[in-house]
From TrEMBL:
InterPro entries: ABC_Transporter_SBP, ABC_transptr_periplasmic_BD
Stretches assigned to the Fe/B12 periplasmic-binding domain: 45-323
Organism, scientific name: Methanorbis furvi
Chain ranges passing through the membrane: 371-389
Lineage, opening ranks: Archaea, Methanobacteriati, Methanobacteriota, Stenosarchaea group, Methanomicrobia
UniProt keyword annotations, A-Z: Membrane, Transmembrane, Transmembrane helix
GO annotation terms (biological process): cellular response to iron ion
Protein name, UniProt field: Fe/B12 periplasmic-binding domain-containing protein
Amino acid sequence: MRNGGIIFVLILLVAAAFVGAAAAEETREFVDDVGRQITLPVEIDAVSPSGPLAQIVLYSLDPDLFVSVSSEFSDIQKKYVDTRLLSLPVTGQFYGSKASTMNPESIMELNKRLNIDVVLDIGEAKETMKPDLDDIQKKTGVSFAFVTQNKLADIPGSYEKLGELLSRPEQGTRLSKYTSDLLAEFDSGMKTIGSDKKSLIYVTAIDGNSVSMVGNGSYHAEVIDYVGRNLAATSASSSGTGDGYTMEDILQLNPDFIIVSYADNHAYYQKIMNDPMWRTLSAVQNGNVYEAPNGPHNWMGGPPSIQRLLSMIWIGNLMYPDVFEYDIDTRVKEFYSLFFHYDLTDAELNDLMIYATSETSAATPAETKSSVPIFGMLAGLAATALFVWKKTLR
């Protein structure tokens, strides 16, 4: 009996060791981009995004990972997203203007039924981020992880990191390679262009004589500054809508190209193409005014995430077709399939880019030119002359 008892104890010890080893294998350690070591399951299948940037990027990795969303989807976005996500609970935003919408108590309650593996935060590292994330992780008992994806150059490395974090290494590597190759393609092309960059402005809003534009040096103007000469002044605002200008300012700048943000009924684009003062600009007369496509997100930003790569592909081809001489339709469809998991039809693509191609933009002035009264054109020219005269008197 004694020997039998010893053998039984040994069996129990061996079994316990195997169970302990198996339990240890079920978790892993991950170090995020602010140096926090986090214990995570080996396989991740339940993720909550901490804000709109994380929501966009997480979707590109795998829509099946979502167990909550940071905010509800707009009507435009609903067309492109997996319908399962439309009924998920909203957990809010941790950082940014809506930081207070992520409530630790709500996260704790949701976690009881969602069993969240990790809350994902994406963006620019802030000085207080490490203690902030440590604090909310302690309060909720849910792991929080941060990955840097701020500048365009951050995107390839961030996808490798995200693939590791979210146990989706193949998709992480696929998106990392795509973005790395794209940035290398544009670096080479922009070196060819050199100092011969076209001038442009990015108009985000128009209200009578008041015009909002994104200034150079802004995080929101990274693509504009890269592919062209952004004529807007150095950014004074961190907002995605940029800074305020008058119509007289715009007339003096007289850019080669105008990119205008999407608005309901294409209101800003139509204003530029049909207003007599705007029509005095060479960009309008030459058919070089383009409205940024919008779906599922505005290609120019709002928020400025991976879709900015689309704006780079698009604007590069518009301004330098001899350098970036690819078929834009093919490239856009490829991007939507890879990052938005959506296969665009030709009709959908045409609707999306209704005022975003050289054909449609070039056609619009010719169609509306006869309807613009000659006195309107003269008024615009007079306004320009008056503004320049005033500047010389200062």
